[in-house]
Amino acid sequence: MPPMKLSRRQLLCLGALELSGLARVAVAQTDWPRQPIRLVIPLAPGGAADVAARHLGAQMHKLLGQPVVVESKPGADGVLAMADVARSKPDGYTIGLATATGLSYAPNIRKSLPYDVLKDFTPLSSFVTFTFFLMVHKSVPGKDLAEVVAHLKANPGKYAYGASSSMAILATEQLMADAGLDLVRAQYKGEGPMVADLFSGRVQIAWATPAVLPALQKDGNTRAVAVLLPERSPLLPDVPTLAQSGQALVNVSPWGGMVAPANTPKPVVEALSKALREAMTAPDLLSQAGSNGLIVRASTPQEFGDFLRQQKSAWGAAIKLAKLPVEQ
């Protein structure tokens, strides 16, 4: 069959239709948002990060003129929430609070996931870094981390560390490898039981969140010797970082950041990222987050994407170092 020839009028009509379609796409992209935005978070209601995310949503409502509806989907190392975001329509009306557990830990520990960390999400911005203090029981001598490490190194296998999260295990194992320590691991299902054993001296060293500091510091039973942050925490400004204490910086980070489904249109990504970064400057958000040990720090989508790749690799190396069981 010979190729079909189109008249000049038909070609003009087709061109008009194509331009009309492009115009509709452009309008659809720039007319965002026209409905409420869903923010999926992998945490139970009431925690520090959950409250911070709700503050963030309220600020975005003011900026965008549309409500941000928070949906909590805790469980399965954050996989449930991240799977929801990954399979959502990429139209800018579903975003998620991603955490290190769901996008750095789970991909390195699980045989299969319902999403690909680097292919199924569009990075929007970093959000928070969680604060962890290295607490030491009074039975371990040393006025600072260097002296504590020296004592532990001189007594291999005689002391135990407590850990109630993958973050705590990996950070301690990296510290042990760098300093040449031999500590017994005691693993807990929650921070409460770990705090009780650290306070009583059943374990002698552990990473702890700001929420349990009052209980741990009661009667001077434990003391903080380092903080797992790039800079000192305003909660305990006299406590140095690992680097300031002469130890190599642990490169697994307890982070949280914002993502959208893959293939979200670029204009919508730019608008979302801009709104997120502006919302993160709100004084009430910064005050609430800071009082709970959350360091708020925004970024560009490119910066957060680079960070996601770096952390996935860092957590993988740390998991091998800690010899954590990986699904086969």
Short description:
InterPro entries: BUG, Bug_dom1. By secondary structure, the chain is of the alpha/beta class. The chain has two domains: 37-128 and 254-322, D-Maltodextrin-Binding Protein, domain 2, CATH 3.40.190.150; 132-245, 3-Layer(aba) Sandwich (D-Maltodextrin-Binding Protein, domain 2).
Give the name of the CATH superfamily of the largest domain.
Bordetella uptake gene, domain 1
Biggest β-sheet, characterized? 6 strands, mixed
List the domain count as a whole number.
Answer: 2
The overall average pLDDT, rounded, is 88
Q: Order of strands across the widest beta sheet? A: 2-1-3-10-4-11
Assembly type of the chains comes to: single chain
Provide the low-confidence segments as ranges. Answer: 10-29
- Report Rg: 24 Å
CATH class wording of the largest domain: Alpha Beta
How many helices? The count is 11
CATH topology category name of the largest domain? D-Maltodextrin-Binding Protein, domain 2
Report how far apart the termini are.
Answer: 57 Å
CATH architecture of the largest domain: 3-Layer(aba) Sandwich
Strand content: 15-25%
Helical amount among residues, as a percent range? 40-55%
Protein name: Tripartite tricarboxylate transporter substrate binding protein
Organism: Achromobacter pestifer
InterPro entries: BUG, Bug_dom1
Signal peptide: 1-28
